[in-house]
Amino acid sequence: MSLIQNFQNIFKIEELRKRIFYVIGILLIYRLGTYITMPGVDASQLTATTGAATDLLGLFDLFVGGAFARAGVFALGIMPYITAAIIIQLMGAVVPYFQKLQREGEEGRRKINQLTRYGTVLITLVQSIGFSINLMNTSPEAIVVSNTAFIITGMIVLTAGTVFVMWLGERITERGIGNGISLLIMIGIIAALPTSLLNEIQTKDNIIIVLFELGVLVLVVSSVVLLTQGQRRIPVQYAKRVVGRKVYGGTTQYLPLRVNAAGVMPIIFAQSIMFIPSTVGTFFPGNETVQMLTAWSSDFTGVAYSIIFAIIVVFFTFFYTAIVINPKQMADTMKQQGGFIPGVRPGKQTVEFIDNILSRITLPGSIFIAIVAILPAVAANFGVTPGFAMFYGGTSLLIIVSVSLDTLQQIESHLMMRHYDGFMKTGRIRGRRR
Fold this sequence. Notes:
mainly alpha, Preprotein translocase SecY subunit, translocation, protein transport
């Protein structure tokens, strides 16, 4: 009853109710756009332009909610924006200009967002050409205009579609609940869940087996939630200082270091590496060595594939964590604010202390992420259909869990500000404090 009451509390708050309905409306518009076919394409003549969700095009189609296979106006979805954002973030670790922008606060973030939008348009223009050529090769009978006209039309329509989707995501972030870009990706992934589950039920003759698979899925999701929310809290003591007649500081706060600071990025990077052989294989169809590598990289259920994939995930977890978390910057900020870690001298020793703790928690976190990454292969080897197996781990599950938790935390904040109980009174969502 308390859970039902908490849902009722959501709709008692007018602002929160409007935000949720606004998000639902935007998501409906996005899903509608995935079913609108591009100009110059006969939808009835379309053949399968993507493979299973385990190859490059299949994974891309999963992220855009099936729009890629349907040649929809949102076929590229929000992925060019994600690519541009990743490039900008990586450049922030090596290019001084972007490092300067990251330190300029709100003005710097505004410039970075503007550069990300420009990068999104450029990447979309390039990807739209590749998409048009791929569609002409796989479904030539579906193209009802000349190739040149179709490529030009595709560049215009797909770029406009991606920019519109990017605008929808920004509207959700500004006027709705949660991160708009992440919600659009999550809704595209979840859209494939009912079909995959129905296919799994039809494939299995015994309902007990399906219920067992769902029970295992719940356990996996619970474990991923623990991984996503797990953190090591380092106590930070702030010295007392007198300003006028007031005394500031003298309190103990905590520096949270997440076990999975890299999020879903290691799996995305690792999958990109694993897709290279199959991508190269399309350019060299007559080379036996390349085709052998292509066949190997296409078998995601193979033991060798899973081992190499897991090792690459562990590597990229450390790599990306080193990019997004800077112990020296943390130590400098702490020192400027008059804070120190009890028993550790400010400066170099604080940097080494934070770096050591970060390395210790990243190692088990990276191993757990690697296990999550290969769980779809394990599930497929135990007889789960490939489409449904993708929800047992990998990028799909991590995105769904992280976005859901972030959205719930924002709803929780609205409830708590208005003195309502949150969703979890006893086992609270991480981020809500006593």
